[in-house]
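Check out a protein:
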Amino acid sequence: MHQFRSRVSVLMLLIVACSLLPIMFLQEPSAQPNDLYLAYGVMALVTFFMVLLLFGMRYEISEQFLIIKIGPISYGKIKLEDITSVERSYNPLSSPASSIKRLYIKAKGKDVLISPSNEKEFVRLLQTRNPNIAVSISDKNDWWRFWDWDV
């Protein structure tokens, strides 16, 4: 079984950081210390889960399945024989991907957007397990494409 971690985009990290700013700076000045401890505790817990979501995603390719995991939780399985195509996508829809630069995997009955960090090896391994997969991935690696910047 081969594992690939998810690529993490700088843009996604900025979105998470900006979502935490109101908690830090828009507090009531007359708040009691216990209320502040509770607010910071909740913020720390939310931050922990957001970081787990961003850095805990991985994709496993076994002999028969593509398995998508978020931390210890299995998000789903796709049979490798059911995969028909792999394409480049920048679709920002919610998906098990920590980057805007994604692969759109079309399969019979289930499509998914993912973002493996080592795309070439990931696609090569998929094609060795299922040679019928059509691959259409084009990259334009210009420095100004901030959605391609990864951590």
